[in-house]
Design brief:
Layout lengths: L1 E5 L3 H11 L4 E6 L2 H10 L3 E4 L5 H6 L7 E4 L4 H13 L5 E5 L23 E3 L1 H14 L5 E5 L4 E7 L11 H7 L5 E8 L2 E3 L12 E7 L3 H7 L9 E5 L3 H12 L5 E6 L2 H10 L4 E4 L5 H6 L7 E4 L4 H13 L5 E4 L9 H4 L3 E3 L1 H13 L4 E7 L4 E7 L20 E8 L2 E3 L12 E7 L3 H7 L8
Parallel strand pairs: 1-2, 1-4, 2-3, 4-5, 5-6, 12-13, 12-15, 13-14, 15-16, 16-17
Antiparallel strand pairs: 7-8, 8-11, 9-10, 9-11, 18-19, 19-22, 20-21, 20-22
Amino acid sequence: MKIIICGAGQVGWQLARHLSTENNSVTVIDSKGSLVRRITDTLDVNGIAGFASHPDVLERAGARDADMIIAATFSDEVNMVICQVAHSVFDIPRKVARLRSQSYLNSEYSDLYRREHLPIDVIISPEREVAEAALRRLAAPAAFDTESFADDRVQLIGLTLDEDCAVVNTPLRQLSELFSTLRAVVVGVRRDGKLFVPHPNDQLFAGDQTYLVAATEDVPRTYEIFGKKNPNTNRAIIVGGGNVGLYVATKLEKGARRIHTKVIEKNRSQAETAADSLNRTVVLHGDGLDMDLLEEANISKADALLAVTDDDKTNLLSCARAKALGCPLTIALINDPSLTTLMAPLGIDAFINPRATTVSSILRHIRHGSVRKVHSVGDAEAEVIEAQVMGTSPLSGELVRDIDWPESAMVGAVIKRGEILVPKGDTRIEEGDVLVVFALTSDIPVIEKLFQVNIEFF
């Protein structure tokens, strides 16, 4: 598969990293030669320095026989033009554009993206993806990562184990025997900074970051067994009233359960815009680092603080100060992955990685065939894939124990005729079954072959 990625920033780099390891021919275009050199020096991809919206640059990138183009530059308008040129001049079959401006995303203007107008097949909004991730974090305070699958009937949850956790030092095989009716599977463990797929005889230790796939109905019991409380969020403070903060506040206002929300925004005009857009939310103009302002917002009585400004350090320090003032849950938006090492010393509970959420969203649309959903884990270290078994798949008709799964992959759930099952050795995989699979990135190509899924386009 031949793919052109326009933009060598964080998202473009991660996409290139994902796709180049899957035997695809990837070419990256960026106007900054230094970014192109960085990506070609570290990844097995081609690089071209130039403006991706220019037809001659796309021609040099091999657009005439490309299967897909992903426009992920920092400019919405450039991304739109790239897709138009890719369609009108080169007839590239699949076009994905990253758009930030909320005006472009208004549903009443959706006709703009029809083939006879602006031919964009998939639109990705980083702000909305990040905002949805923030809402999931607020809904699951005890988890450091969460994502839903199978029409919200299956959940991925990430839990950090404490010293007093009942399952610490217990082999996973024994765990499944003790809680035989629990529909939850430990599919991944991060220990000492390394992520791996555990074996049945492996034990869990205090400090482990565990990834579990669980039936949504069994998630409360899973929290209880793993020593976690998942209290309701009734009062929330959002630091940052930009696109992300405003989207989150709007969703909280419209939610079925009333959450008292306050927004702190440093920019006066942005604060006024947020105040005009929100009905029940209190908007405070000021700096989220101001201790007096945090106290004025009653941070000590808040259940959660969400820091989503465009400055990582402001987000980290706002969370640290909120924690010092008694806020039980703090969540920070962090663009620079190297800063996540500061979370533990500062007492920050969870973070949101914008590039991981955006990459997950794009991969969800890239992988067709039987793949329904993709969630990128960590710094593109692993993926959770929801896929349906086709009749021609090597999996169809086989027992789980007879399938040659990669060592770094595990099935977390099987949805069979609407019923959610924990996979066992004698579980027979049949046509129409839906599997939720956790796999390290290096084994994704093998998983796709098992499902007979390539990066194909309708």
